[in-house]
Amino acid sequence: MITLTINGQTHNVEADESTPLLWVLRDKLAMTGTKFGCGIAQCGACTVHINGAAARACVTPVGMVADAKITTIEGLSTDGSHPVQQAWIAHEVPQCGYCQPGMMMAAAALLTQKPNPTDADIDAAITNICRCGTYPRVRAAIHSVAKT
Amino acid sequence: MNFALNRRLFLTASTAVGGGFVLGFSLPASEAEAAAATPEVNAWIVIQPDDTIIVRVAHSEMGQGAFTSLPMMVAEELNADWAKVKPEFIDPTEHVQRGRIWGSTATVGSRGVRTSHEYLRKAGASAREMLVAAAAQQWKVPVSELKAEKSIVTHTPSGRTLSYGKLASAASRMTPPKDVALKAPSEWTIIGTPLKRVEIPAKVMGHAVFAIDVRLPEMLYAAVEHSPAFGGKLKSFDEAAVSKLPGVRAVVPLFGNAVAVVADSYFEASQALAALPIEWDRGPNGKINHANIRAFVNEGLTATDAVMGANEGNVDEVMPGAAKVIEAEYHAPFLSHVPMEPQNGTARVTADLVEIWAPTQNIEATLNLAAKAAGVDIAKVKVHPVMAGGGFGRRGGQLEYVTEAVMLSKQLGKPVQVIWSREEDIRQDYYRPISSAKFKAAFDAAGKPIAWDTRIAGQSILSTANPEALKKGPDLGFLVCFTDNPYDVANRRVDFGMRNTHVPVGYWRSVNHSQNGFFRECFVDEMAQAAGVDPYEFRRKLLAKSPKQLAVLEAVAKAAGWGRSLPAGVHQGIAQVDGYGSFVATVVEASVRPDGHPKVHRVVTAIDCGNVVNPDTVKAQTEGAVAWALSAAFYGEITIKNGGVEQGNYHDYPMVKMAEMPMVETVLVPSGDFWGGVGEPGAPPVTPALLNAMYKATGRRIRSLPIVKDSAPRSAD
């Protein structure tokens, strides 16, 4: 039994400590906003926050985050009011939308660290893959949050 | 900021938060009952007493905007209040039972708008007339005294009004008009406006339900591995080695060429699959390597069995007397789709019903495959519509994951979710075909091109998608961009040395335009250079009789500032390719790093898709096409070893990410007299425009993709 703190709530899950957090979220807790894209930390579709920092849940053993504060897309806000979500809507960022939870989690972590990121900061921090090619709108949306 | 959740999406979303059983965009019970009680005004339109207008959508939504753009066309002619329009996917079983009343469900070929604009607008216009007729009957006034606006019918002389919701039931009993007049574009108030895509809030909340997100009681998960060589067979596997591993429920051979491990969670299934000893018979293609394939395809460039695609004038007569002749060979690799949502399917097979959830570009194909796999009539199949996490041509018809999910659920008696790993996705794809081009162009003493000879060699998509069609004749679709070549050269010929390999091929966003656009537009640059003319001016001259192509070319040159002063090392390249019923031209501004890799600074695209339904969607699709093209141009290559694909994930099949993404500008120049597609046509000109810019930077032509594999010495000037 592992006890996890996710989006401010405590969850007890039966899982081997080596199980990636991604699969505990998706398969044990039915929190499916965090996506599977590659399984090898390449695409970032599974990005969550571990103690506020962006992390790739597909390679994060759940045993390592038992004492951490975990935030998923479902916890970014309960009503879509997070500035990143609002900016994503205003800029019509998503196309297929599958990568966007991870993209938004990466953006939210960046903006917490650097409230006014430069293009170079965005290039360095947003290493998620979007196959639809929404990158220009992701960049514009991040800059728009910085301005507010 | 305006943030309003679509009510129905929100209901769906709320259920998801509680970990409930969310079934895509299906109606909550109360609304479903209301809908059942409310008759259709026609097959596309159901108007509920509360004025909610349900507009049916027959195409898939995979980010291209069909769920918004198609209802916009209905709503335009219906004179609906857009705020009250609720798009809803059709039920494919009902679709087939009603004689395919909603038209084609195939969401391919950038066809959503361009094939349905007429029947969707007519459905809206017809329903509007029926609503008006119902009001006329109720008020006993002539139709000519009525107007319908924003979901309300008004009797102009008296000022009386009735909402569509109040009229819908009576309207549904009216005889549909035989013929309806459609509005002139100048009368449009919905078409042509940048309306917000309706499903975006759910996607931003993380609540949009993709098939991979479906959670059912007692659901099991399956990981599957297919023969690593195409045409190989499953020889044996050692079930005992994994059957005691945590969570494992079953190990199931599939089709003789695959094996699935079913477990309580996907992670357990995939761990056990990785540990499962499997022996493969790599089959008749097991010794084929990439060099064999490349040599086989290239042999098609000189083969005598080529079939003629187009032959104008007399190339052979003109060539020998030409003042100047240039020749070049180009090569394009196999490419994989890799949509972000891996291939997956969830099935719940019971004695009475087969339920299926799967990403698809053709919901009727999903239905048929599920029925076939279960061995039941389609009447016993329920396809739950879901958003697709990308498609790009991968999910048009080859939906093995549907078959696998149904077979496993049937066998295990429980709901099963099959997920292909990214490795399976990349190794079991239907690839953009490998191909080559050999060009020869001749010029007169004044530098005018007088003859242009093209040989294309490569693998026809029909060799996989429809081999029967090839028996009836050659696949001349493989010669697109050449058989319809708009450049005015008096003597032109193109023929095709078809070389079909054992590798399965398919429709990859922008299909044959993707390689042929690259071949043609790079060679046109070579022709311009040989003629000693600026590549933009050279194209302008040869497009004088092709006004649509010329217009986008001139528009992009103007928008980009063709020939403008740029920082040292940054150069412009230009290209234009029409396709999918639209016309596109692109300018790329790029520099070349000392290691030979490009840095793309800016991409400007001009697109004429005729009529624009949703300008923001057209822009989004065109922006996306730039990333699509650049990933392939920079890195994209699928290679074959021992009969199977060598690459397996994003580390060895990389994508362009944020840091490599240029500034993108899209200029819409709609000429208004036709309806073109927008999902694909943005991509083809990007690669040649980039390579043409790189040529200016280095003085060396790259004629073989991807750029990263281009091994000849380079220099940055």
What is the CATH T-level topology of the largest domain in chain A? Ubiquitin-like (UB roll)
Strand coverage percent of chain B: 15-25%
The structural class of chain B is: alpha+beta
**Could you name the ranges of chain A where pLDDT drops below 50 across 5 or more consecutive residues?**
none
Got a strand count of chain A? 5
Instruction: Let me know the CATH homologous superfamily of the largest domain in chain B.
Output: Aldehyde oxidase/xanthine dehydrogenase, molybdopterin binding domain
Radius of gyration of chain A: 15 Å
* Portion of residues within helices of chain A: 25-40%
In the CATH hierarchy, what is the superfamily of the largest domain in chain A? Beta-grasp domain
CATH class of the largest domain in chain B: Alpha Beta
Largest beta-sheet details of chain A: 5 strands, mixed
* Total strands of chain B: 27
Distance between the termini of chain A: 43 Å
Mean pLDDT of chain B: 94
How many independent structural domains of chain B?
3
The strand line-up of the biggest sheet of chain A is 2-1-5-3-4
Spatial strand arrangement across the major sheet of chain B: 10-11-8-18-15-16-17
SSE pattern of chain A, N- to C-terminal: EEHEEEHHHHH
The gross shape of chain A turns out to be: globular
Treating each run of at least 4 consecutive H or I residues as one helix, how many helices of chain B?
Answer: 20
Question: What's the gist of this structure?
Answer:
The complex is a heterodimer of chains A (148) and B (717). Chain A has helices at 21-28, 73-76, 83-90, 100-113, 119-125, 135-147, and strands at residues 2-6, 9-13, 47-50, 53-56, 69-71.
Written overview of the protein:
The complex is a heterodimer of chains A (148) and B (717). With 148 residues, chain A is of the alpha+beta class. Chain A has helices at residues 21-28, 73-76, 83-90, 100-113, 119-125, 135-147, and strands spanning 2-6, 9-13, 47-50, 53-56, 69-71. In chain A, β3 (47-50) and β4 (53-56) form a beta hairpin. In chain A, α3 (83-90) crosses α6. Chain B is α+β, with helices and mostly antiparallel strands and 717 residues long. Chain B folds into 3 domains: 7-205, Aldehyde oxidase/xanthine dehydrogenase, molybdopterin binding domain (Aldehyde Oxidoreductase, domain 4), CATH 3.30.365; 211-283 and 343-419, Aldehyde oxidase/xanthine dehydrogenase, molybdopterin binding domain (Aldehyde Oxidoreductase, domain 4, 2-Layer Sandwich), CATH 3.30.365.10; 290-335 and 430-709, Aldehyde oxidase/xanthine dehydrogenase, molybdopterin binding domain (Aldehyde Oxidoreductase, domain 4, 2-Layer Sandwich). In chain B, 31% of the residues lie in helices and 22% in strands. In chain B, strands 10-11-8-18-15-16-17 form a 7-stranded mixed beta sheet. Chain B has a 5-stranded mixed beta sheet with strand order 13-21-20-19-14. In chain B, α5 (112-139) packs across α6 (164-172), α11 runs parallel beside α12 (400-412) and α16 runs parallel beside α20. The longest helix of chain B has 28 residues, at 112-139. In chain B, 58% of the residues are buried. The chains are: A alpha+beta (148), B alpha+beta (717). At the A-B interface, α1, α2, α3, α4 and α5 of A face α7, α8 and α19 of B.
